From TrEMBL:
<dbReference type="GO" id="GO:0006491">
    <property type="term" value="P:N-glycan processing"/>
</dbReference>
<dbReference type="GO" id="GO:0000139">
    <property type="term" value="C:Golgi membrane"/>
</dbReference>
<dbReference type="InterPro" id="IPR038578">
    <property type="entry name" value="GT29-like_sf"/>
</dbReference>
<dbReference type="InterPro" id="IPR012163">
    <property type="entry name" value="Sialyl_trans"/>
</dbReference>
<dbReference type="GO" id="GO:0003828">
    <property type="term" value="F:alpha-N-acetylneuraminate alpha-2,8-sialyltransferase activity"/>
</dbReference>
<keyword id="KW-1015">Disulfide bond</keyword>
<keyword id="KW-0812">Transmembrane</keyword>
<keyword id="KW-0325">Glycoprotein</keyword>
<keyword id="KW-1133">Transmembrane helix</keyword>
<keyword id="KW-0333">Golgi apparatus</keyword>
<dbReference type="Pfam" id="PF00777">
    <property type="entry name" value="Glyco_transf_29"/>
</dbReference>
<keyword id="KW-0808">Transferase</keyword>
<keyword id="KW-0328">Glycosyltransferase</keyword>
<keyword id="KW-0735">Signal-anchor</keyword>
<dbReference type="InterPro" id="IPR050943">
    <property type="entry name" value="Glycosyltr_29_Sialyltrsf"/>
</dbReference>
<dbReference type="InterPro" id="IPR001675">
    <property type="entry name" value="Glyco_trans_29"/>
</dbReference>
<protein>
    <submittedName>
        <fullName>ST8 alpha-N-acetyl-neuraminide alpha-2,8-sialyltransferase 2</fullName>
    </submittedName>
</protein>
Amino acid sequence: MVRLCRGDGGTLHVLPCVRKQCERKQISIALIVQRICRIARIGQVMSFEFRILMFGIGTALVIFVIIADISEVEEEIANSVLNAASTSLVTYRKSKVSSSPIPLAGINSKTSNSSSPEWTFNRTLTNLIRKNILRFLDAERDISILKSTFKPGDVIHYIFDRQSTTNISDNLYHLLPTVSPMKNQHYKQCAIVGNSGILLNSSCGREIDSHDFVIRCNLAPVEEYAIDVGLRTSLVTMNPSVVQRAFQDLNSEEWVQRFVHRLQSLSGSVLWIPAFMAKGGEERVEWAIRLILLHTVNVRTAFPSLRLLHAVRGYWLTNHVQIKRPTTGLLMYTMATRFCDEIHLYGFWPFAHDPDAKPVKYHYYDTLTYHYTSSASPHTMPLEFRTLSALHRQGALRLHTGPCKLPT
């Protein structure tokens, strides 16, 4: 308890500790009060104004110390909430594996091969990861903004460029879903298909298509690579840059028709367009939206919530995975934990060579090159891969990097 003196040196009132740990603060407060009271007694022979001034100074100092203590409590509460999201997972991981990153050599085509009997699904860990991720985001809600959230003309700040803005166009508003495309959805087995050249000659197409829900990235072509990557698509992402890279910015009628054909092949799938990440892609987003409406393409469009990317990054940072910006693949895995029991990853291989030292293309469908370890890259792909490898070894997901077993 802290006692404040009156102007005449007597006791004015009592302030309780904010919390038990604040007892150490009482020493500082007591010293302040003691000195103020001593001055106040001297001040009895001085003017009334002087005594009022000294009393005000003393009260202000005591309030300052108490507020500092309250701030410390609030900070500890905030930290405890954040740490709660990772404590269970981190504890689990430490009990099973070393806290240091899993070395690349720890996973190869033999141990990660879908035909290998060594992998066992860990339902307990999977449920724990799902529970912890839900503390940061809910994929059912965050997978898309809804029509009820905005109206045409509303201003949106870009996620990576807060100084720049765009407007909700009439066409974009028309394609906003009224309810989440993943509302009340749940699947036993899901496949997330990355675009690494490790898929070439894998014969994984039929196995990928056998999953209950298939997620693909960046509108990658499938028809001419079906034996290795499959055909089925439940959800596919489309960064605005895909229109430029894969469809030549729709600079001719031929490329427009190719783009429309690819969209039509989705046939009722979810088309996930991150339209509000960074300035520069708004024109391509509008092109795509206009063609979807013009050709009445049968897709369910989704536009991720403005908080999704930071929430995903926050989850992984809390679990000591120091990513810069999550890749599309990691975003999809993080969201899929919400509606998938068992998650299988294909085409995740951020290295220029396979485990047998053979060259691996960056994408299975083009000749684009990429410097995986460049500091200029917005992503940290090798680190993400090591993290996914660790989860594979613990049975939380299955990472396929070798040939698939052909059905007999």
